[in-house]
Amino acid sequence: MTSHAPLRAAVYTRLSYSPDGSLETTDRQEADCRRVAERLGASIDEVFCDNNRSAWRRNVRRPGWEKLLEGIAAGRWDLVITYHGDRLMRQPRDLEELLTLADNKALSLASAQGVRDLSNADDRFILRIEVAHACRSSDDTSRRVSDKAKAAAQAGRFQPGRYRGYGYSRDGMTIIEPEAAVIREAADRVLAGASLRSVLHWLITSGVPTVTGAAWTRAAVRGILTHPRIAGLRALRGEVVGPGLWEPIVDRETWEDLCRVLTPRRRGTGRPPTARVHLLSGIALCASCETGLTAHRRTDHASHVYYCANPTCPGPKVSRAKTHIDRYVAAATVGKLNEPDLLDRLDSSRREPDAAREIAALEQRKADAEATLRELADRGDVDPRLVAESISGFERRIAELRGRLAATERDRLLMKYAGITRETWDALPLDVQRVLVASCLRVTVLPSSRRGPGFDPESVRLDPVV
What we know:
Blueprint: E1 7-15, H1 24-40, E2 42-51, H2 63-73, E3 79-82, H3 85-88, H4 92-102, E4 108-111, E5 114-117, H5 121-154, H6 177-191, H7 196-205, H8 218-225, E6 233-236, E7 239-243, H9 252-262, E8 285-286, E9 294-297, E10 304-307, E11 319-321, H10 322-337, H11 340-348, H12 355-375, H13 384-407, H14 409-417, H15 422-427, H16 430-440, E12 441-445, E13 460-464
Parallel strand pairs: 1-2, 1-3, 3-4, 8-12
Antiparallel strand pairs: 4-5, 6-7, 9-10, 10-11, 12-13
């Protein structure tokens, strides 16, 4: 490779994993590449760096690599210099793409190990062998890492990540009590009927910090409350494989309940939430059209009223002072929660305390059966239909238990607040009060038959839900 003019060169550096985002290692790669360029008499036009990027994983984009290919296609360089060939490529398809772009161009690859001319058939053959070897090496490493992760998970050992898990120290074993208290409070609110939106609002307005310092989102709250870690469970690729070696923040039954309650809920946008500020908005119904009433401030008074905002309501439309009806419905709900008949029914319908534990055991047995089925796929001496039937049996029993838990969710909420006093009611979060009202009573606002000050109980119909 000789030329009177200096060779035009591009430098490419890459580091697969850098926990702190450091560029130190790629800087050292660049320094070695510059020494190679000096030895070859090349002038470096541009340096491309892909830090924290894998060249083996096919779903990972490498912006620096993509820009390098664009320059090669445009014929901007005579030479590409890298620390080692495996920094540039670890997948045969990447090499073939490079060779295609290099056709009819005088392009070479250089490193401390030597120079390869991409127009030379022997050099192309050697490059194909080297990249295939690098790909096989990555495959072997991936398998060893996967096996190690599986063994660690089955032993219940903690697997550290880039960030520590909320509620635990960096070692994953020590509970951070202030954060654990936040998790328990959030769990109590969700299981009491509060929406994820209201829990998010509480976290933001209370100034509770996140692990990274970023803003709270509904996805983050859901992720924390449904993560097996908080129940002392070890998971691998989203599946619980057994107990962990650390202490749980909540018991397993509570965690199962949280997963069941939160999983079906629609993901939010991540924007700061606006919480409900009126007890009966959307709950109290217009007697004429059965539309949920809306609260708004009167133009001539400082107070609020509930009114029917449905433009197609046949009328007469209803409007009622918020203060009076809120007080009336709250008292009726507290009274309902103290009725002896309700207390007796809730006591008799109390669910089995081990239902969540049984579901977890069945899920594990189902996973074991599925693993057995995969092992038997290539064997002719065992009928895989038998294993498949056992898996179906597990699925039916799990569905039955989950259906039973879902059916009793309302009863569990009422059990939690049965016998409540008015003082305790007043101290509850508004979101919980709203759920209790909707669980106990159907509130219908009728057109008022009289005018004047005061509140007419006859203008509100309360039908028991339980």
